[in-house]
Amino acid sequence: MRKAIDGPNLASTLNQSAFNVGNALGPTLGAAALALGFGYRALPWIGSALALLCAAAALFSRALESAEPVPVEDGRPSAPR
What we know:
By secondary structure, the protein is an all-alpha fold. The chain contains 2 helices and no strands. α1 runs antiparallel to α2 (42-66). The longest helix has 28 residues, at 8-35. It starts with 7 loop residues before the first helix and ends in a 15-residue tail after the last helix.
């Protein structure tokens, strides 16, 4: 929310929407796994894989946030402000 100075309402809405998508995605993937013939023993593995995927996305996002901005070379137009 601190990064969304120009649009805090949009950032809040996107945060809640992502939470709801996550809540719907887990049971959907679990039901799909059961429908495809995987047993109940596969469900914890699917949940663990999803947790690892989300952790990797969070770490990647954090790395992008802390990365140094790319300097603009001479002769190139600068980004509008």
